[in-house]
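User: Sequence recovery, please. Input:
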């Protein structure tokens, strides 16, 4: 293994360590909050429209 391969390997290990550290400090929720709010709003609107159509 020459010096270039060793340097590339070290840089890759350093970058992976940084990514791993960032994920530990700031884990992302499995479902983004904004998407969840939009999904709840769509369900509520659908139920209200269904109730209005059912009464009409």
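Assistant: Recovered sequence (56 residues):
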């Amino acid at each position: 293994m020459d010096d270039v391969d060793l340097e590339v390997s070290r840089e890759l290990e350093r970058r992976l360590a940084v990514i791993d550290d960032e994920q530990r400090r700031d884990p992302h929720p499995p479902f983004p909050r904004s998407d969840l709010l939009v999904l709840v709003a769509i369900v509520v609107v659908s139920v209200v429209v269904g109730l209005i159509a059912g009464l009409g």
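Residues 3-55 form one domain.
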